[in-house]
Structures are given as C-alpha cells and as structure tokens.
Amino acid sequence: MTSRIALAGLLADPAIARAFATLDGDGEETRIVGGAVRNALIGKPTNDVDMATTATPDIVMRRAQDAGLRCVPTGFEHGTVTVVVAGRPFEVTSLREDVETDGRRAKVRFGRDFDADARRRDFTINSMSLTSDGILHDPLGGEADLAARRVRFIGDADQRIAEDYLRVLRFFRFSAAYGEGPLDREGLLAAIRGRAGLERLSAERVRAEIVKLLAARRGPEIAREAAEAGLLDFFLAGVAGPVRLDRLAAIEQAQQLAADPVLRLAAFAVLTPEDADRLRDRLRLSNAEHRRLHAAAGALERLHGSAVPPHGTALAELVFSRGADAVLDALLLAHAESTAAPADVAWRTAREDANALRELKLPVSGEDLKQRGVTEGRAIGATLKTLQAKWIRAGFPRDPAIIARLIDEAIATREI
Fold it and tell me: Are 361 and 391 in contact (CB under 8 A)?
C-alpha cells in the first residue's frame, strides 16, 4: 500500500501531469520509467524523471512545441528529446531496440513494445514503468528484487554488459546504493569476465560511476569488492586503499559527517600529490577536484604515520603553509590511517582548531616591510615567510610592540 501511495504522489506532481497531458493519448502511450519509479517505490527522492513513449522523436517535439513547451533534441538520433515543463527537464525517449552495439554506443530502431524496452535495460529494478493512470508495469520482477534489496542483470548478464561495458561499474554502484548482502554471483562473474571492455570507455563516464559508487550507502564495502576483483586498477592508477576508505566511512558515521565522495576517493586512491595527478589524467577529474586532492595529499605528507594529531604551533604552521581546507581534509585522512577510534576527541579537536585558524591573518603586509626598508620583491616574500613563522611561534600576538619586535628579528635574520 505504501508503495502505491508513493507512486500516486509521483503522478500528482503538476509538472509530471502536464508532461503526460502533452505526450500521452491520441494513439501514443507514454510512461515514467527507470529510476523515478524505483525510487518512488522505496521512498527515495526522485530528482530526475525519465519517460518512455511510443511516439517518435519528431512527434514528441511537435507535441511539446504545440503545447508551448521548450524542447531540446539532446539525443535525437537515439530517440531522446528533453522536454522542459515549469523549468524542469524531462528526458523523453522513444521506445527502441539496439540494432547494433560496440559496447559503447548503439544503432537503434524505434518500436512500440514496452516489454521489449524493459528487457533491453540493465537491471530488473530499473525495468519498471508507470502509466498516467497509476498502473505499475513490472514484467521482469523488479519490484520483488527491490523489496529484497537484490540487484541483478536482466536476462543474460554477459550480453547486457557487452551492450555497454559501463554496466560493469553500474552493477557495483547500484549494489552499493540499493543492495543488501552478497553481490549477485552471476552479475559479479559476468563483470569480471567483461572487465577488459572497461578500457574502451571514456574517462568521464567512468569517473561519474566511481564517484557515485564511493558516495553510496555501502560504497566503501562494495568498492573493496570491485578492487579485489581487479576492476578498478587501471582507473585508480595505483594500489587501492580499502582499509583507509573503510576507516574514513566509520569516522564520518561516528562524527555525523556527510559522505564526501571526493574525500573518499582520496582515502581510496591518493597517498601523494603524484597520485592526484595520475587520477586527474585517468579519470578526467575537474580542475577543482584535482586541486583539492593534490592539496590534501601535500598536507598529508606531513601527517603520514601520526598516532596523534598536530596541535598548537605545529598545526598552525601546517594551516598557514598548506591552507585550512587542505589541512582539514588531510586530518581526516590521517585519522583514518591511524589506529585512533572513529570518534576520537583529539582528532576532532584538531579539525576544529584548524578551521578556527583560517580566520587568523598575519597583521603585516609587504607595504609594511617596504616602509622598513625591505624593497626587493623576493626579499619581501622571504621576510614575510620568516616573520609568519615567528608570529606563529609567539602565539599570534596582536600587540603592535611585539609585532614590531618580530619584524625587526625577521629583517635581521634575512640580513645575516
């Protein structure tokens, strides 16, 4: 009963109702398919709503335009048109079957058989569809598998993977997000057999799946299994660290921290800045992701093997030299490397102190040094660095007399 109420709530959405009113009827049938149906059945958010239709792409576009809706032919040759209703995009895909596929992309022809469309999808839990009148169509047992927290391929697992090798990684990602208990054995063996096809995929698609896998509810556990099966070696560009990833997840849980997929990637595959560089190339990381991983690894080099966190002057020097954000990441990674309990107070306090230090700023500028006779650019930089170290060791004083003395000492040190 609860699941049917959730489906009714999905259909009550005004934007969805208008999309149905535009596309359904007059000889054509449209249904909500895939993830929106799956998530609604278990009460998870349905951010993206995809639809399948018997109408061909040109008919979809004509109907949308006649209804005054914006539409974009995002994948017209494969039957996909994005229809925008009240500012929300709906991917509408014409029923189709793959005529030919090379494991990355397919040639398709359009059809009118919803059951055939369900059979060409990846997993049973993604094969269900919902009509505008609230009827759930489930020809492959997806609802029962969803209730049992079972993720299994539709039909022959090897064939499903050969159609798109990204399904190897999707098997692990969906198992991490929706599954319970051991991985489906048939799916796991098929994934291992099909792993050579992973090297044919674009780095961007692989990156998206790995990030989603690591962020999932059982991400660390399932990522370990994928790594042990040899499915991530090529992409991680080094030795995976499942123990450190497990420890980070335990720290997140104990300290009520949100799962951070980029930090989890660092825990799983980054020990040095060079590891971050390799991941950037193998996974086509964004500039922001690469900068974060590289900075965290740089700060972590000072913390590897630490049984206890830095504090006082040592922590301040690390924050001022590496930046507070990098040090916060590095402290979590170092905590995960240590044997300290996930809820350890000392490591948590170190993060709080590091965060507070970001507000501190050396109360001296290059202009101040110029007024004291230091005029050459390189000399100003070196003197500021020396002065900052002295200021940190002195306990961050604000008294002008103390600061003046520290400036004198820094200049004198430079002149020696």
Answer: no
Quote the domain boundaries for residue 162: 152-234
- Please report, for the domain that includes residue 168, its CATH number: 1.10.3090.10
pLDDT reported for residue 3: 66
User: Measuring CA to CA, which residue among 83, 89, 79 is closest to residue 70?
Assistant: 83
Q: Which residues lie across from 30 on neighbouring strands?
A: 53
Total domains in the fold of the chain: 4
Residues 80/57, Cβ–Cβ less than 8 Å: yes
- Is it the case that residue 200 has pLDDT exceeding 60? yes
Element spanning 37, H or E: helix 35-41
Region at 230 (left for phi over 0; alpha for psi -120 to 50; beta for the rest): left
* Residue 231 · residue 169 · CB < 8 Å: yes
Which backbone phi and psi does 178 adopt, to 5 degrees?
Answer: -125, -15
What are the two backbone dihedrals, phi and then psi, of residue 117, each rounded to the nearest 5 degrees?
Answer: -65, -40
How many Å apart are CA 312 and CA 15, to the nearest integer?
A: 56
Task: Give the amino acid at 261.
Answer: P
Contact 220, 264 (CB under 8 A): yes
**Domain-ending residue, one of 212, 234, 256:** 234
Query: Is the domain of 87 the same as that of 209?
Result: no
* pLDDT classification of 1: cutoffs 50, 70, 90: very low
